[in-house]
Every structure is written in structure tokens, then in C-alpha cells.
Automatic annotation (TrEMBL):
This is Acetylornithine aminotransferase, mitochondrial. PROSITE patterns: AA_TRANSFER_CLASS_3 (PS00600). SUPFAM superfamilies: PLP-dependent transferases. Pathway: Amino-acid biosynthesis; L-arginine biosynthesis; N(2)-acetyl-L-ornithine from L-glutamate: step 4/4. One of its GO terms (molecular function) is pyridoxal phosphate binding. It comes from the Eukaryota. Its cofactor is pyridoxal 5'-phosphate. GO terms for cellular component: mitochondrial matrix. Gene3D superfamilies: Aspartate Aminotransferase, domain 1, Type I PLP-dependent aspartate aminotransferase-like (Major domain). Keywords: Amino-acid biosynthesis, Aminotransferase, Pyridoxal phosphate, Transferase. InterPro entries: AcOrn/SuccOrn_fam (IPR004636), Aminotrans_3 (IPR005814), Aminotrans_3_PPA_site (IPR049704), Class-III_PLP-dep_AT (IPR050103), PyrdxlP-dep_Trfase (IPR015424), PyrdxlP-dep_Trfase_major (IPR015421), PyrdxlP-dep_Trfase_small (IPR015422). Residues 1-31 are annotated as: Disordered. Residues 1-10 have a biased composition (Polar residues).
Length: 474
């Protein structure tokens, strides 16, 4: 370990206590100073383990050259794929835990988790066994018939939610294939509710969402995503969508008796890891109650343990709860699935034939999701996530001190972190990748870190050291 890096590591332990108070997250998400100190001690022992994973400030991995197997692979197949993403030339091939390998045999520490999806990491053998067994038994039947797993998943989601301090009105679940489709369902349910509720009717169809949010790419979820980059090529948007400023209580006047739904992320993930304040969310809930608008919490990225709680909104005051909660991403650990959980009041507005899906809720995806929800809702597992958060907080705060003014702010909780830069972040993402760490960008000049939730302390340390080296190389 280079001396600069090992000094940084020791400082992380020392800084855990201080950083627990300084970085940006709302108070509900913060860990107590006592547990931060306790964790600093754990961190010190993790430092020893991680010494094995030495990362000098040298380039350990290469982006494939023109003559490589990867380049030949991309040249052969890329012409047939519609180009919707800019990506480096690596071709990923296998994974185990928090590590992945490309077809050249290069190893990467994965702090992207497939964009906050692989919460249980890669190559989870129990999950693979379940997948295999269920695929032999039955993959799909459609929703024309009951199957053995959709119902148990819906029951588990409701029961585990009711066991938290979160959505106490959780009652029924609609299972979809993705996050966008979960939001699409939520928006449709709210529109139907708006027509039927006393004082509602044809006029009550407006949806309010927030700047800097991300709700998906289908026309409804895109209409709720006020980002010109995503919306402009596909204009016009669905009628009735209005936008307000996140955390601006005065701006809530945009919500009126014509509003059927408000959709919000408790933590804006794609937007750069920003937190709704408890005051704002409480005021928002109150405003929705005043005008009888359905409040939708999009927990597609923030949910299922990512914040250290089963649902990020558990950290809000008890009165600030949603009528619909949407989830996806981690729900299948990579098997495509999403869900919209609704209160009984919303459920009553939805009748047979109102909404549907061919694949949504198939027994393969729902059996996997049942396993995943059971693991991710385990209180001990969630405590671990909270504790590991302090390693990130202290490590990233140390980097901020060291690389100011390039790093201007650290925002995060649990295992979702944003490192705010004063410049575009691709150079850091590239420098980290060349040193064997995958991270992603978000929002405006933010480096986003969303590792598998099973990440080990030594791996957190390793990742922070690589980031240190990446910043040092700028
Ligand atoms: C908060 C949020 N909502 C919705 C979506 C869309 O989910 P999907 O890509 O599964 O359609 C995402 C994806 O990044 C998200 O982060």
C-alpha cells in the first residue's frame, strides 16, 4: 500500500466520528456518534485485511486495445445493436460477490451493482439454485392463472413493509417487469383514483413531479422526469404533468384540487444523490391530503435496503408516508421485476381489466424476488448496511479534504453515495476503471457509488483507496 494511501486509510477510521456529523443527509439517516466510533474500530481491523488488496497508484487494468478479443467482439456485434449507451470497450463476463471480470480476465471491484440492482452481489449460489429449480418447474403462465409465487411475494412485501416504520397503509401489490412500468402503473392507478374520489372527476388528472428527478423512460414515467435531455427528443409529453422544485415548501402551491398524483424520490439517485428533507416531505404529505392527491414514493433506487432501511422513507416522520410505493432494481437482483404497492384506498379504485401485463409476476421472477426481499428486509442485514455507511462517509470525507476544491461535497447514506465534483466526472470514472474500480456518474458532475449491499469492509477500503489513486492521477 502506498504510504499516501495507507495514511488516508488510517485517517478514515479517525474521521468516522467527525464525518458522521458533517456530511449531507437528513438527520433521520445519520448514525449515532457512538456507533460511528465503534465502527471506526471495525474499520481499523478492516484496514489490515485490505492491506492485501494493495493498489499502488498505477494502472492495473486496461481498456481493451484494437487488437484485443474484446475489441473484436464489439466490432462483430455492435453493428447489430441499437446504440443507446456510450460505454467503454470492456466486455463483462462473470462475477462473484462484489467483483466482476471481463473477457480479458481483468478484475473489477463493482461499486455500480448494475445501477443499484445486484444488492446480493454477483454469483449468489442460493439465488442461482432457486432460479434453476424454478426454471425447471415453471417459468411463466401469464396472469390468467394463479401461480405459486406471485401471491407469496405480494404478501411478503406487504408484511415486511408493515413491520417497519414505513408505509403503514401498505395493502396490495401489482407486479411489473421494471421500474418504469411500476411507476407507469402507479400513475395510472392515481389517475383512476382521481376520477372516482368524491370531489374528483375528469378534471383531476394532473401529476406533479420534481426537477432533478428520474422516474423512467416510458411515456408516463418520462413525462414525470423533467429533464430536457430525456424529454425533448420525444416531445410532446403526456398532458397534465407539472414540475416543482425539490425541497421547496413554497413551491407546493402547484398542487391543487386538479392534482391526482405527486411522485417523488425520497432520495434522488440519478439526480446526483439528493435527500428530501423531513420538513418538505411532511409538508408535501399534508398538501396531498388537503387536495386528495395520491402521494407516490418512487423507491426504485433508494429502496430495499440501499439506505440502511428497508425503505428510505422510514427515516421520515411517521406522518410522511406514501399511498403508493414503487420498487424495482434490487427486487430481482438482476432478474427483471418491479412492483407498485398500494394502500387499500387506492386498491378499491382499481377493477379487473384496468391494468395488466403479460410477463409481470411470472413465477420465475417472483420466486427470486421472494428470496431477495426476505434477505434484504432482515434487520441484522440492514444494520450492517448502516454500519458500512460510516466507512464510506469517513473515507469519502477524507478524500474531500485531500482533494478540495475538486471534491466539493459528499452526500449519502447507507450504500448510496454521491461525490460532488467541481468538474465533469468522466475523467475520474475512467481513472478508477483503469485501476480496477467501477463507479458511475449522476446528476450534475457527481460520481455515484452504489455497491452491492453485501460489500465487505475490506472492499470498501479497497474502493476508497482506488478512488484516492484516481483523484491523485488527475
Ligand atoms: C428512481 C428511479 N425510478 C425509476 C427508474 C426506472 O427504472 P427502470 O430502468 O427499471 O425502468 C429508475 C432507474 O434508474 C430510478 O432510479
Amino acid at each position: 500500500m502506498s504510504s499516501a494511501l495507507s495514511t488516508a486509510s488510517r485517517n478514515i477510521a479517525r474521521g468516522a466520528h467527525r464525518a458522521a456529523r458533517s456530511s449531507t443527509s437528513h438527520p433521520g439517516y445519520r448514525i449515532s456518534p457512538t456507533s460511528a466510533a465503534l465502527h471506526a474500530r471495525n474499520y481499523a481491523s478492516a484496514t489490515a485485511d485490505a492491506a492485501e488488496a494493495v493498489h499502488q497508484n498505477v494502472i492495473t487494468n486496461r481498456d481493451p486495445s484494437e487488437n484485443s478479443k474484446s475489441a473484436a467482439f464489439v466490432r462483430e456485434y455492435e453493428p447489430y445493436c441499437l446504440t443507446t449507451y456510450a460505454r467503454p470497450g470492456l466486455v463483462l463476463s462473470s462475477g462473484k460477490g462484489c467483483y466482476i471480470w471481463d473477457i480479458e480476465g481483468q478484475k473489477y471491484l463493482d461499486f455500480t451493482a448494475g445501477i443499484a440492482v445486484n444488492a446480493l452481489g454477483h454469483g449468489n449460489e442460493e439465488l442461482s439454485t432457486i432460479l434453476y429449480e424454478q426454471s425447471l418447474k415453471m417459468i411463466h403462465t401469464s396472469n390468467l392463472y394463479y401461480n405459486e409465487w406471485t401471491g407469496p411475494l405480494c404478501k411478503l412485501l406487504v408484511e415486511r413493509t408493515l413491520a417497519t416504520k414505513g408505509m403503514q397503509s401498505a395493502s396490495r401489490v401489482f407486479v411489473s417487469n421494471s421500474g418504469s412500468e411500476a411507476n407507469e402503473a402507479a400513475l395510472k392507478f392515481a389517475r383512476k383514483y382521481g376520477k372516482l374520489t368524491p370531489g374528483g372527476g375528469e378534471h383531476k388528472y394532473e401529476v406533479v413531479s420534481f426537477y432533478n428527478s428520474f422516474h423512467g423512460r416510458t411515456m408516463g414515467s418520462l413525462s414525470a422526469t423533467p429533464n430536457q435531455k430525456y424529454q425533448k427528443p420525444f416531445a410532446p409529453m403526456v398532458p397534465g404533468f407539472k414540475y416543482a422544485k425539490y425541497n421547496d415548501i413554497d413551491g407546493l402551491d402547484i398542487i391543487t384540487k386538479d392534482t391526482c398524483a405527486v411522485i417523488i424520490e425520497p432520495i434522488q439517485g440519478e439526480g446526483g444523490v439528493y435527500f428530501a428533507t423531513p420538513e418538505f416531505i411532511t409538508a408535501l404529505r399534508k398538501k396531498c391530503d388537503e387536495v386528495d392527491a395520491v402521494l407516490i414514493f418512487d423507491e426504485i433506487q433508494s429502496g430495499l435496503g440501499r439506505s440502511g432501511y428497508l425503505w428510505a422513507h422510514e427515516a421520515f416522520p411517521a406522518e410522511a408516508q406514501p399511498d403508493i410505493l414503487t420498487t424495482a432494481k434490487a427486487l430481482g437482483n438482476g432478474i427483471p421485476i418491479g412492483a407498485a404497492m398500494v394502500s387499500e384506498r387506492i386498491a378499491q379504485a382499481i377493477k379487473i381489466g384496468d391494468h395488466g401485463t403479460t410477463f409481470g409476476g411470472n413465477p420465475l421472477a417472483t420466486r427470486v424476488a421472494h428470496y431477495v426481499v426476505d434477505k434484504l428486509s432482515n434487520p441484522e442485514f440492514l444494520d450492517e448496511v448502516k454500519h458500512k455507511a460510516e466507512l464510506f462517509r469517513s473515507g469519502l470525507e477524507q478524500l474531500k479534504e485531500k482533494y478540495s476544491p475538486v471534491i466539493t461535497e459528499i452526500r449519502g447514506t447507507g450504500l448510496i453515495w454521491g461525490v460532488q465534483l467541481n468538474r465533469e466526472p468522466n475523467a475520474i470514472v475512467d481513472a478508477a476503471r483503469l485501476r480496477g474500480l467501477l463507479v458511475i456518474t449522476a446528476g450534475n458532475n457527481t460520481v455515484r457509488i452504489v455497491p452491492p449491499l453485501i460489500v465487505k469492509e475490506a472492499e470498501i477500503l479497497e474502493g476508497i483507496e482506488i478512488l484516492d489513486a484516481a483523484f491523485a492521477s488527475l
